[in-house]
Amino acid sequence: MTALDVIILLIIVATGVAFFIASNRYIKIYEKLEYENCTLDEETTKQVEAEKEQYASTYTAMTITATVLCIISAIPILCGAFFTQHLSGNQIDSLMTGSVAITLILIAIGVFFFVKTNTIEDGYDILLQVKDYTPQNKLDRLAYLRNYLRHFKKNLQYEKRRRRLRLEIIEH
Question: Which of 147, 125, 138, 153 is nearest to 48 (CA)?
Fold first, then answer.
């Protein structure tokens, strides 16, 4: 892998991370709706249901596209493997580097489509309180998080005590 390839890869990774950080800011605004009950008046509920229905074909198309992109992402590497017998060392390196880059780009686009479409679909589900976001599921998720945090705190306290004892043993 040449220095230019690494630079391009780092730019792509940095861009992806920037997108995730930026989108996380917008998600945090509505995060409480995932755990709290959300009541909409009948008119708003009908409007959200209509928008969700309108979005259904886009959701299906983008999910199919994402799935196909992830499945065919291995093709560039496999095609590159066919030509390795006819190429020299540097040519093989360049071919395989390009093949891996194309594979990663296909996967990145597929994952982007998955995340984008599912985020929008989940937004509708949260507002309508259906599927994973029914009031009962929200309560169950909160109970799970509370138990997880309680367990985490208990383990953290145990680790602090254990480290303290190790330090005392080492000091003596």
Answer: 125
C-alpha to C-alpha distance for 76 and 98, rounded to whole angstroms: 8
Residue 35: phi and psi, rounded to 5, are: -115, -15
112 is written with which tokens? 């982007």
The token duo for 44 is 């708003």
Q: What is the DSSP letter of 133?
A: G
Q: Enter the pTM of the model.
A: 0.74
Q: Does residue 8 sit in helix, strand or coil? A: helix
Rounded-to-integer distance, Cα 100 and Cα 109, Å = 14
The first and second tokens of residue 39, run together, are 């009541």
* pLDDT tens-digit map of 31-61: 888 888 888 999 999 999 999 999 999 999 9
Average pLDDT over residues 78-97: 87
Q: What is the phi-psi region of residue 79: left when phi exceeds 0, alpha when psi lies from -120 to 50, beta otherwise?
A: alpha
Higher pLDDT pick, 151 / 26: 151
Tell me the C-alpha distance between 23 and 118, whole Å.
13
| Residue in this structure with the two tokens 């229905």, named with its chain if needed | 53
Residue 19 confidence (pLDDT) above 80: yes
